[in-house]
Amino acid sequence: MNDVVTLISAALLVIGSVFALVASIGLLRLPDLYTRMHAASKAGTMGACLMLIALAVQANDVGTMSRALAGVVFFLLTAPVSSHLLAKAAYAVGYRLASISVMDEMKPED
Amino acid sequence: MSLFLVNLLLALSWSAVTGSFSFLNFAFGFLLAIFALSLIREQVGSVGYFSRARRVLSLLVLFVYELVLSAWRVAVMVLSPNMNLKPGIFAYPLRVDRDFEITMLANLITLTPGTLSVDVSDDRRILYVHAIDASDPEAARRDIAEGFERKIMEAFR
């Protein structure tokens, strides 16, 4: 039983760190802020949540477990809000979309 | 919502009576309270409560599934040797009109494959969504309308 728990938590840790790595590679390779937010908000959130769940699986007291799970919930609540605000602020300040973009319906008609 | 409170109170009293406030015991008490409420659903008018709880739960399952899928898609895209991107911002006409429904829809869109909500128009009619693959905005609009927006309307109306 204990071995199974350890294996599950180790697997979650590895998968979580792979997603975090992918998120940072995405930050390097993607062309503009908006596409980068995709990598940061999805793969990044996923990685952090998986690692916290790994902690919750491994912990054998309720306090650690509930705090780790609360961390997951707050990650899921705050990640979209922060990426949304960053994208909105960047657009308001005037960062244009990358030149490969195919459409922009938000651009004011003039 | 008040029935949810009753449900929580019943679970709390189960914890108090059995003298253990561990998470497992509380969860068991919560299940017992659901069972008790379902026994008297005709009398306290909780029929709607159960079908709504089921719809909220199905929204939650859809959300987790889409999140995993979206993280996977981003990973595959980032790691492929030549990224063939067609990013763009498209306008999405909103059908939901209450503030918390718009917030929830925007958050769900952000955490799902290939889309990121950027802004809401001042009159709250249009949501601007950045898509990493905007080659077919009609299909993307249809996906949102038939997926999350419909589920949100089912769960909270």
Automatic annotation (TrEMBL), chain A:
Molecular function terms, GO-annotated: sodium:proton antiporter activity
Transmembrane residue ranges: 6-28, 40-59, 65-87
Domain of life: Bacteria
Keywords: Membrane, Transmembrane, Transmembrane helix
UniProt keyword annotation of Magnesium present: no
Repeat among keywords: no
Protein name as catalogued: Multicomponent Na+:H+ antiporter subunit G
UniProtKB/TrEMBL annotation, chain B:
Example of a GO cellular component annotation carried by this entry: plasma membrane
The entry's keywords: Cell membrane, Membrane, Transmembrane, Transmembrane helix
Keyword Lipoprotein: no
This protein's record includes keyword Transmembrane helix: yes
GO molecular function: monoatomic cation transmembrane transporter activity
InterPro entries tied to this protein: Cation_antiport_E (IPR002758)
Transmembrane segments: 25-44, 56-79
Membrane topology value: Multi-pass membrane protein
Superkingdom of the organism of origin: Bacteria
Pfam families per record: MNHE
Subcellular location: Cell membrane
Similarity section: Belongs to the CPA3 antiporters (TC 2.A.63) subunit E family.
Name this polypeptide is given: Multicomponent Na+:H+ antiporter subunit E
Lineage of the organism: Bacteria, Pseudomonadati, Pseudomonadota, Alphaproteobacteria, Hyphomicrobiales
